[in-house]
Amino acid sequence: GDNRCISGSWRCDREGDCSESEDEAGCVYPTTPAPMTNDKCIIGEWQCDNYPDCSDGTDELGYTCTSDQFKCSDGKCIANSWHCDGVDDCADSGDEAGYTCTSDQFKCSDGKCIANSWH
């Protein structure tokens, strides 16, 4: 509504990114049963999705990242494509640490690698 653009992947992700959450309007979420935590039921797809739906965060604990994910030091799983992409996705920036830039990347003075086209 405010003419701001967001990534298409943010649509229907259960998080209002637009000023009036219109990116979540009309979304249909699966209704797979999931465990109860603190007397709150959540759908199965919300478990281990890197977004704490339970007040104590237990829906995000005790799982292993898949082969197409990078595991942050705090246990959070992010997409492999987010690893060393120049954006801090882990709380401790561990997904960007110790990375050597590729030939199609520019290395900033802070050590981050960005696409040559962004330079």
Walk me through the topology.
Layout: E1 36-37, E2 40-41, E3 69-71, E4 77-79, E5 105-107, E6 113-115
Antiparallel strand pairs: 1-2, 3-4, 5-6
Describe the protein in words.
With 119 residues, this protein is mainly beta. It has no helices and 6 strands. It has strands at residues 36-37, 40-41, 69-71, 77-79, 105-107, 113-115. The strands form 3 sheets. It has a two-stranded antiparallel sheet.
CATH class of the largest domain: Few Secondary Structures
Number of strands: 6
Number of helices: 0
Mean pLDDT: 77
Show unreliable segments. Answer: 32-38
Query: How many discrete structural domains?
Result: 3
Q: Structural class, from secondary structure content? A: mainly beta
Which series of helices and strands comes N to C?
EEEEEE
CATH topology of the largest domain: Low-density Lipoprotein Receptor
Strand order of the largest sheet: 1-2
Shape: flat
**Main beta sheet: strand number and arrangement?**
2 strands, antiparallel
* Relevant CATH superfamily of the largest domain: Low-density Lipoprotein Receptor
What integer value in Å does the Rg equal? 17 Å
* Fraction in helix: under 10%
